[in-house]
Amino acid sequence: MLRFILADLRRAWPGALAIALIIAFATALGITVTLQERALRLGSARAADAFDLVIGAPASETQLVLSSVFLQPAPLPLMPGAVMGELAADPRVAWAAPIGFGDAHEGWPVVGTTGALIDGLGGIAKGQGFARLGDAVVGARVPMAPGDTFHPVHAELAAEGEVHQGTTYTVRGVLSPTGSPWDRAILVPIEAVWQSHGMEAGHDKEGDARHHEGALDADQPVNPAAVAAPNAPGVPAIVVRGHTIADAYNLRQHYRGDRSVAVFPAEVLTRLYGTLGDARSVLSAVAIAAQALVAAAVLLVALLHVTQRQRQIGALRAFGASRGVIFLIVWGEVALIAAAGVAAGIGLGWLAARLISARIEAASGVAMPVEFAASDLGLVLGLLAAAGACALIPAAIAYRQSPAAALRG
Amino acid sequence: MARLAIRNLVARFPGLDQPALDVPAFDLDAGARIALRGPSGSGKTTFLNMLTGLARVPEGHVTWDGIDLATLGEGARDRWRAANVGLVMQDFHLFPGLSALENVLLPRRLRWRGAEKGAREEALGLLRRTGVPRPDQPVETLSRGQSQRVAVARALLGRPAILVADEPTASLDAEAGAAVGALLTDLARETGATLVVATHDPELIERIGRVAHLTAGRLAA
Ligand SMILES: Nc1ncnc2c1ncn2[C@@H]1O[C@H](COP(=O)(O)OP(=O)(O)O)[C@@H](O)[C@H]1O
Ligand SMILES: [Mg+2]
């Protein structure tokens, strides 16, 4: 019986192949949407995992997370410099590091921070950390090696190409890969950022830094105490890890006020996904609609095919074939083509999600885990069941074909 | 061996005033051979459909060896026909993409219990007997005469007690028609099958030896 199905398929292979491909593309569409959405969610959640808590000036919490976790360039208001000193002295804090944005080098964001962040992100893979103000540490994806030098530019002026001519950094180390956008970052001492923007301790020129551009003394040693000084310049964000989860919750409570906000990146992401949830369901609705349309088209083709071959099918019965077996053959043939299409579609969808994820990964640095989950089994089984149910219709038509009418032709 | 008894068989089709078939009584001894002759539209195919269980018997009785086809359902008629009837039609109804041998075996294979042991050898023997030179030749490359020989071999697989042919030589040239006609009558004699053939072919009618005339659905010996 199987041999008969295969012989029949071999004879009609171009049509069967075309139908299997159409089914494969429809399946792939649904699989890609599912896998890609999951990869985005997991990838950004893992990227946000590096930091317990992000503290910033009272403004958009979403922007605070997007800037600190995903390094999205956007102007953030500054917090009083004293906040960092308080956090450094807080016994609930395991480590805290200020981060200052604004500069870039050939598209790679240059971020001012301290050694605490380097350790917090997983440490140095090659070379060493900050010793002097002219030192830089690059993320795993930045194409620079220890010994390379560069001049950063103001991010918002990057298009005009205004280079900090007086500022030269030398790469000293490379970070271990983190699978987060920080793999694309160039880390420099935050004091160096202050110096090159004319924001020395005690001379906080919030917002008009670029009018007071200063020169960087690259050989001056890094002074960790300067960051925690009560009169330190303001910073846009501080990332914090508590000793325990309870500490993190306490800190979040403590630093939510009119001076600063404190957020869990994961909590902000969840909120963000909440608002994106509608878009997600629209997307899967589109995928399901596409699959339903394809199912209808395939059914139509299967019906045409069976109708066209009613004579052959009826004749088989006239010559002694069992009509139950004929039912099974027609059903099996349609189901086999559909199952092959679904199987190919799963592979195709996975491949597409991998390609899309690789592009997003290259552009954002966020590692995108494309993986199947147990719930996908339900989707696949559902598709197969739908294919099996659709195949019943042409099979039933073949079953009901009268042998006498078939012979009459 | 199969014996036929028909009583009060009437078949009507919607749109026709006269019944397409009206046979008060018709009998055939086991192993008998008969040609059925009549103009086109006289009811020959309808009659054969009743004989072979291809169509439901709407009124009356068609009894083969005590089994009244009028009492059988569609599935039961299919099973009875598969076990007892070999069919040869004007069109060959061969399945393209399969070889001659596979075509002979196909209807048997498409049964729940599959083809019997030894069916393949029997089929090869029948193809040799009907003069099909290459059993593994794809059927779409056969000539018309060869195609009908394959159809005859298919009809004879399993040694059916009843052999029914509907205009088996009508689509063949004279030479091929004569050969197929000879095969049908010879093989029916060899196997002892009861043979019923609807045909206009004078040579075939003569070969069969006995003829019944069908006119507007009514039989006359
Ligand atoms: N399925 C059908 N529906 C309606 N009329 C039919 C059908 N089958 C046969 N007929 C009619 O019954 C008559 C006998 O047909 P048929 O048995 O095919 O004749 P023959 O085989 O002698 O040419 C014809 O008039 C034909 O048109
Ligand atoms: Mg006819």
Automatic annotation (TrEMBL), chain A:
This is FtsX-like permease family protein. One of its GO terms (cellular component) is plasma membrane. InterPro entries: ABC-4/HrtB_transporter, ABC3_permease_C. The chain crosses the membrane at residues 282-304, 325-352, 372-399. It is a multi-pass membrane protein. Keywords: Cell membrane, Membrane, Transmembrane, Transmembrane helix. Its main location: membrane. Residues 287-400 form the ABC3 transporter permease C-terminal domain. PANTHER family: ABC TRANSPORTER PERMEASE (PTHR43738:SF2), ABC TRANSPORTER, MEMBRANE PROTEIN (PTHR43738). It comes from Amaricoccus solimangrovi.
From TrEMBL, chain B:
One of its GO terms (cellular component) is plasma membrane. Residues 4-221 form the ABC transporter domain. Keywords: ATP-binding, Nucleotide-binding. PROSITE patterns: ABC_TRANSPORTER_2. This is ATP-binding cassette domain-containing protein. Pfam families: ABC_tran (PF00005). One of its GO terms (molecular function) is transmembrane transporter activity. The keyword Nucleotide-binding applies. The keyword Chloroplast does not apply.
